[in-house]
Amino acid sequence: MRSTYLLTAQENQVEYEFLTAVRADKISELSENSSFGFWVIDARSDIKQAQELLLLVRQQFVPNVYLRPVVFLISSDTMASSVESMGCDGVFYANGNNEAQRTELISKFELVNQWVDKLPDVFKVSDTDLIFRVLRLIVSRNSEIVPIMTAQSLSGFIYPLLEPIAKQSDSSFFHLLDFLEAQHLISGRFISHCYFCCQCHSAFLNFKEACPQCKSENIESDELIHHFKCAYVAEKSTYQQGGLLVCPKCDKELKHIGVDYDKPSLINHCNQCGLSFQEAHVTTECFNCHTHTEPEGQVSRNIKAYTATAIGKNAAIFGLDALFTKIISSKVSFFPEDQFQKFLDIEIERIKRYKLSESSLGFIKFIDIEKIYLQQGERAEQFFEELSTIFKSILRISDIVTAKNQSVFIIIMTETSTANAKVALERLIQGLSVLLDENLNYTSTIPFITESINSETDFEMLLEKFISNNVS
Amino acid sequence: MFLESLIYSIDNYIYGLVYFVRHLKLEEFFYYFWPFLVFDLVRYILLDVLVLLVYLPRKFLNRVKLAQARRDFYREMPLVSVLVPGKNEGKHILRLAESLQSQTYKKFELIIVDDGSDDDTEVICRKLERQKKIDKFIRNEVRGGKAAAANTALCYAQGKYIVHLDADSHLADDTLELILLPFYMDEKVGAVGGDVRVANIFDSMATCLQCIEYAKSISVGRTISSMFGVLRIISGAHGAFRKDILQRIHGWDVGPGLDGDITLKIRKLGFKIVHEPQAICYTNTPVKFSKLAKQRFRWDRSMVRFRMRKHLDILLPSKGFKPLNFISSLDNIFFNFILNIKWWVYITQLILMSTDSETVMFIFVINYLLYFLANLFEYATACLLYAKTLRLKHLFLFIYIPLAPLYTGFFLRAVRSYAYMMELFFKVSYNDAWNPWKVSKVAKKEGL
Q1: What CATH number does the domain containing B231 carry?
Q2: Suppose B115 and one of A351, B87, B276, B350 were both cysteines; which one would form an S-S bond, judging by CB atoms 3.0 to 4.6 Å apart?
Q3: Is B248 within the bounds of a domain?
Q4: Which tens digit of pLDDT belongs to each residue from A204-255?
Q5: Do B439 and A260 touch (CB under 8 A)?
Q6: Above pLDDT 70, what percent of chain B?
Q7: What is the pLDDT of residues A151-188, one digit of tens each?
Q8: Alpha helix (H) ranges present in A59-161?
Q9: Structural class in CATH, domain A321-469
Q10: Residue B200 φ then ψ, to 5°
Q11: Domain total for chain B?
């Protein structure tokens, strides 16, 4: 039987004997626990705290923790509907048959747990890449991730399951899903269409009609009346005499619409500048940031439900081949890290033995690689192609390159002094910075260091130091 | 061999024709050609001579007055409202708007009323409105007819003067200025008719012949009528009105023929109606004779409906009797309706003479020659009147003048006769799809 854990904010007495209490600050201790059933979070007294604990689970990096099902312990059916949109996988009724519920939930989550159990290095791997974590969560549930329209979220829609993993649902989360879809890792089904504020991406927009001339919102409408007999056309107010409609041209009383008169259209009047018009100036005001935008300036987006594709399912198990690394390695020959290490060892030995030349080791980190993914969506691939071209143009064939992950690159620059290596890397970074600045319109800092390769060189130490100094 | 025999036959025929003319006695000449001698020669040729002898010199002498009127006009700089009602006319609006943008007089507003179009007129016009090429666009979802659409535009017009245009027309650069100057030359002028010329001259034979016809009947004919103070119509395609007068009569009444109707209503108020041949509007005319026949069938019926029914009071003695209005209406009824009957009388006369087929043929040929010469003279007069606005293409049309007697003498007369008969006996104008059926139904019931 799988174990079930009650996640608590502080030390609490456990009401249920089948639950093992785990304090929030000790959550990582369960990362190597096998035979995991599901998390239970008590939502009866403090729903907000329950949400925070759910967030804590999903924010963990170890798949064995963050991918496991989470159920909320609730006291009534009315609570069930309110926790539905919070992203938990199910509910556990405090006043129900405990054993039956437990068995049922374990059985319900069995497929999810089996899938998580099969992940390679499920206890050790640290999934730091948000895209990969989202993909794994979608695949693990093996069901369609359907958005819910809600006023609780600024974007107007949430994906309950994914909400805790993403911390907040803003436009970048939509970009992330777009990216996964563009990579054919998930497929979308159209649900709805929505307009968002161009400034803060809020879905809460107030559509307003205004005078096209003075932009005043103080406008009124009046109906036009056409009297068939004399072809006279004027606004309804012109015809009104007491409670009757009387034609000012022929003094006949208008009796039946469609028989002796009709109303061909509406006219708006501006009470500010007096303009008469039909097509009002439509503008929107964001409820969140109060930005006024023309309708054509708004961000329009299709809202979709998502399911994992076969490629996505495979990528979720065996790792998402980082797009950038994949593209760059097609242009610049990348060596696996172990081979790179061997080359480095050989170079260290060679220099140590002959003491004739100088070689250098360069470290580069792309801090904003994930940001580029999210911002560029489908265009990311094309953008990375261009970045890779710059890499290729600067690096020499004799340079040995490896990628630690999708954002850290290490280069052995043989027969190159640290000063020259620095010049080469500066040129590389300058090229990359210009491309980023021109295309993404932001200045990105690309940290790098160069080190001389000698008998003292400790690759692991240098790498760790470089990464820790440049944590994004 | 064939050619020789053809030349011989023609030679023989011409010889016979010359012999027939040389031996024609005066009373025979009058008997055979009385319609031309009594009516058409007087009505068209002699009056054209008046244009050459009176109008053109007077125009020259009036140049000081015209210059003063222009100064007064530019001193006042009145706002002019250009009204364009229409249905499914979106494709023409851009060209019209652009022709207005290049006007020498810039202080105008362009108001387009879409009378329930079922094509993309609304989309086109809304776009032009956003681009500020149209000042106001009003879309009537329910079609109400041209008069209702024009009245809708009038309802929102801000200008002191109203210029009414057809959507499928465009203006020469100085038209807006020229059509308004008569208001500043004579304060009794209530409305000014602008010259309407054919835009699509060389689209077909029908358009070429209409161009000749417009030159004769509008450019010259209306100038003469205006000179005599009996102008009875301001074309819906191009006319200028004082807004206060239009408001006094509450705009246009139910058509078809609303342009002639409103002209008479303004005349009845005692205002002068004049024609300004130098204020030019180019309009698209029907390309096919079948379409042209339909258009004329509609126009001609309004003569019966409005002159002989609605405004019959002009011909009757009353408190508001005005001699010039009487002459204007009588002139219209006589020369269009009565003389059309004359044409049938003449045809009957020729049929009765048909036992002498050779004589009838000679009469026909001589008549054709006379009408050809009359058309030639009339068109030449129009070209003189055009002055600076005369173009090479107008001169090119001289080669089509031999066909003009066929067009005016047979085609137009046949259509006109049919239209008069149908309207007199069956009141078919009330069934015309030109107006929405609900409007026609009320108009028929009220006898409008």
Answers
A1: 3.90.550.10
A2: B87
A3: yes
A4: 999 999 998 999 999 999 999 999 999 999 999 999 998 899 999 999 999 8
A5: no
A6: 99
A7: 888 889 989 888 888 765 556 678 888 888 877 788 89
A8: 63-66, 77-83, 98-108, 110-117, 130-141
A9: alpha beta
A10: -100, 55
A11: 2
Give B71-95 pLDDT, tens digit per residue. 999 999 999 999 999 999 999 999 9
For residue range B195-234, list pLDDT tens digits in order. Answer: 999 999 999 999 999 999 999 999 999 999 999 899 989 9
Judging contacts by C-beta atoms under 8 Å, the chain B residues touching residue A260 are 442
Instruction: Work out the burial of residue A410: count CB atoms within 10 Å of its CB; fewer than 13 is exposed, 13-18 middle, 19 or more buried.
Output: buried
Residue B145: which of A231, A250, A263 has the nearest Cβ? A231
Can you give the pLDDT at residue B51? 77
Q: For residue A76, what are the contacts with CB-CB under 8 A and spacing of at least 6?
A: A93
What's residue B10's pLDDT? 85
At residue B98, the pLDDT reads: 92
- Whether B84 and B164 map to the same domain: the answer is yes
Residue from the list B141, B253, B438 with its beta carbon closest to the beta carbon of A230:
B253
Facing residues of A6 across strands?
Answer: A21, A40
In angstroms, the CA B448 to CA B445 distance is 8
Task: Search chain A and give the residue with CA nearest B442.
Answer: A229
- Stretches where chain A sits below pLDDT 50 are none
Mutate which of A225, A228, A276 to disrupt the B interface (most B C-beta within 10 Å)? A228
Listed by number, the residues of chain A in 270-309 with a beta carbon closer than 8 Å to a beta carbon of chain B are 276-279
Residue B439 lies in a domain: no
Domain identity same for B128 and B221: yes
For residue B258, the chain A residue with the least C-alpha distance is A231
CA B98 from centroid of its chain's CA atoms = 25
Specify the amino acid at residue B158: Q
- Per the structure, the complete domain to which residue B341 belongs is given by 14-52+324-431
Q: Which CATH architecture has domain A1-128?
A: 3-Layer(aba) Sandwich (3.40)
pLDDT score at A272: 94
Whether B447 maps to a domain, the answer reads no
Q: At what angle do helices A110-117 and A98-108 cross, to 10 degrees?
A: 50
Tens of pLDDT, residues B45-60: 888 888 788 888 888 8
Residue in chain B nearest A227 by alpha carbon: B148
Residues 209-238, chain A: which have Cβ within 8 Å of B?
224, 226, 228-235
Are residues B285 and B329 located together in one domain of the fold?
no
Domain segments of chain A as ranges? 1-128, 212-279, 321-469
Q: Answer whether residue B285 shows pLDDT above 90.
A: yes
- How far CA A244 is from CA of A225, B250, B344, in Å, comes to 13, 20, 54
> In chain B, whose CA is at the least distance from the CA of A257?
B438
What number is the average pLDDT over the span B129-136? 92
pTM of the entire structure?
0.67
Helix or strand or coil: residue A382? helix
Is residue A263 within 8 Å of residue A224, measured between CB atoms?
yes
The CA distance from A233 to B116, in Å, is 14
| B434 pLDDT above the threshold of 80 | no
Same domain, B163 and B269: yes
What is the ipTM for the molecules in this complex? 0.86
Nearest-neighbour CA in chain B from A264: distance (Å): 5
Residue B280 lies in a domain: yes
Q: Tell whether B199 and B114 lie within a shared domain.
A: yes
Which of the residues A211, A227, A232, A249 would you substitute to probe the B interface, choosing the one with the greatest number of B C-beta atoms within 10 Å? A232
Q: Output the pLDDT for position B182.
A: 96
Which residue in the set B137, B143, B148 is minimally distant from A231, CB to CB?
A: B148
Query: Are B19 and B122 part of one and the same domain?
Result: no
Question: Are B147 and B241 members of one domain?
Answer: yes
Residue B140 has its nearest CB partner, among A264, A277, A279, at A264
Identity at B78, one-letter amino acid code: P
Tens of pLDDT, residues B364-375 = 999 999 999 999
Could you tell me the pLDDT band of residue B380, with boundaries at 50, 70 and 90?
Answer: very high
Shortest Cα distance, chain B CAs vs residue A218, angstroms: 19
Looking at the fold, whether B92 and B20 belong to one and the same domain comes out as no
Residue A453 half-sphere exposure, CB side, CA atoms within 13 Å?
31
